C-alpha cells in the first residue's frame, strides 16, 4: 500500500525544490538566501546545486511545473511572492497533478497498479481558497506599493491626511476583507514613506469608499486616495477615466453609492471638501498595480 502523498514527498518535493533552488541561484541569491527562502538547510541547497539530488524528469518536464517554478522563482527572488503564497500555489499544483490522468496519478498507479481500474480524482484542496485569495491580494499590493515608492514626485500627490493603497478579496464584505497600508502613506520631507507592509483590516476610510463603490455596482477591487486638484481630475478624464463627484460631508457609503449609480463606469471619485474636510480624489481599479499605474501617470 502506497499513498499518493508518498509520491509527493519522494518524487515531487525533491524535484521542485531542486528546480526552485536553481531558479533562485540563477537570480544571484546566495546559498544562505536560497535556504532561508525555501526553508531548508544550506547543505541541502548545495546538494541541489551540485545535482546530488535525483529529480523526476516526468515531473520536471511537465509544462505546469516548469511554468509555476519560473513564476515562483521570480516572485520569491524579488519579494513579490511570499513563501506562504508559494506553498499555497504548489499545494494547488499538487492537487491538479493528482487529477485523473495527470503525472502524479500516473506515478501513483505505477506504484500501486490496482488503482488503475478506479476512475478517481484525489482533489482535496480548493483552488480558490480564502487563504490563496488573501495572499494574491497582498502580493498585488506589494507590487503596487513598489510602483508608488519608486514614482518620482508621488509625495506631491499625498493629501494632508495621508494616502493609502487598498485592495480586497473577491467576495469582500467588510473592512477586514480589505488590505492596505497600516498608518497610511505620508509625505516625509518630500519622500513618500510607507510605514509597513500591507495587512488586512488596517484601512477604514479608503476601504469604506472601495466597499461602498462595489456594493453599488463598481467593477473595482482596489483603490487609492490622492489630493484633489481640478487639473488632476481633468487629466484622468482625458486619459479615458469616468469621473464622478460625491459629497463627503454626508454619509460616505450613501454618497459614494449615489455617485456610482449616476456614473456606473466611474473609476475616479472626488469630493471638493467642506468645513473641516480636506478635498480628496479616489482612484479605483481592478487591482493594486493598475491603480498605482494610474496614479503614476499623473506625475
Automatic annotation (TrEMBL):
Gene3D superfamilies: Class II aldolase/adducin N-terminal domain, lambda repressor-like DNA-binding domains. It comes from the Archaea. It holds the Pfam family ThiN. GO terms for molecular function: DNA binding. Residues 26-48 form the HTH cro/C1-type domain. PANTHER family: HTH CRO_C1-TYPE DOMAIN-CONTAINING PROTEIN (PTHR40730:SF5), TRANSCRIPTIONAL REGULATOR PROTEIN-LIKE PROTEIN (PTHR40730). This is HTH cro/C1-type domain-containing protein.
